[in-house]
Amino acid sequence: MKDELIIETINITKNFFGNKSSGVNNITLFIPRGKITGIVGESGSGKTTLLNLLSGKMVPDSGDVFFHQELLPDRENARQEVHRHIKFLTQDHYEMDLNATVWENVKAGLSDKDLHYETKKVTEALSSWSIQHLHDQIFSKLSGGEKQRVTIAKALISTPEVLLLDEPFNQVDARFREGLQQDIRTIVTKMGITAILVSHDPAELLSMADQLIVIKEGEIVESGNPFELYEEPKLLYTALILASCTQLSPAQARVCGITSRRGSVVVYAEDVKVSKGIANSWLISRIFFKGIYEELIVEYKQVSVRVLNMAKGKYKVGDKVSISIRKYHEFGKWAR
Ligand SMILES: Nc1ncnc2c1ncn2[C@@H]1O[C@H](COP(=O)(O)OP(=O)(O)OP(=O)(O)O)[C@@H](O)[C@H]1O
């Protein structure tokens, strides 16, 4: 069955100060209902601008945004009913009352003010987001991660149809980030909410999103399911954004035993294996400890290759090794 669409944009453009290289250009986009869409792209590529346009916070210079096949009105007009169904979470918590308690903040997200219903709903929301113990704490005194949970609880308490998230986990430390990501995924899926997520962290997008949109210089350059985009990117840009990898020219690729006539070869770190072989011509020049794994930089004839190594501690800087490459990606000269 075809996915039902909830948001559609037709050729939307938003440039700042008439500068065509800023904002977004001519984007046509379909957002399926009940799915998580991730937006990825280098810094300044237009991700936040796109989110602002999808929320109605910004109005396109040209083109249209449709919500349920009707033109999305400007968010400036706060009385527009439609905006109750689209919640936008940013890191600045502008929608929160900094001096109010967690309970009061979450309660303010309710549209129905019936007292019995209110207590029940707020209690449930605090429990869903594991913040019941913070109920009488003042919002401004919370940690970054706690603030984020409270903000999400408030946004979701009235079950919006769409949740837009701009870098929602930036202030959350690594220990809690994965839990929060998975909680959002579980709750959003359970409630049938459509989520659109902008993040700089490819691992976050790959694990959370059902579909990914790759944006460059204000344009969508590639889109698809995260697994396929990662495994078989059509563009060099996508590979470099999503993977920890090495980009090689055809001449450098030859040093690695790869024959390619195309513009660039990209080798993902997990596709390179190091071992003590016969030739051992590669030198381990750096080791980055990453916790559960290491990344090694190996060098030979002025070519450096990044390697993911699960066997932590097995090698040290200065060791000579052999490498074998299981898989690589080739991109034409013009595959931007
Ligand atoms: N309000 C604004 N006024 C002027 N230029 C803007 C404004 N908002 C965005 N831009 C410009 O538009 C381009 C895209 O910005 P945007 O914030 O959408 O990118 P981004 O992909 O979200 O970047 P980042 O990942 O760094 O947050 C940038 O060149 C930025 O300088």
Automatic annotation (TrEMBL):
Keywords noted in UniProt: ATP-binding, Nucleotide-binding, Transport
Entries under InterPro entries matching the protein: AAA+_ATPase, ABC_SmlMolc_Importer, ABC_transporter-like_ATP-bd, ABC_transporter-like_CS, P-loop_NTPase
Transmembrane segments: none
Domain ABC transporter positions: 7-242
GO molecular-function terms, A-Z: ATP binding; ATP hydrolysis activity
Pfam families with a match to the protein in the record: ABC_tran (PF00005)
Record protein name field: ABC transporter ATP-binding protein
Organism listed in the record: Mucilaginibacter mali
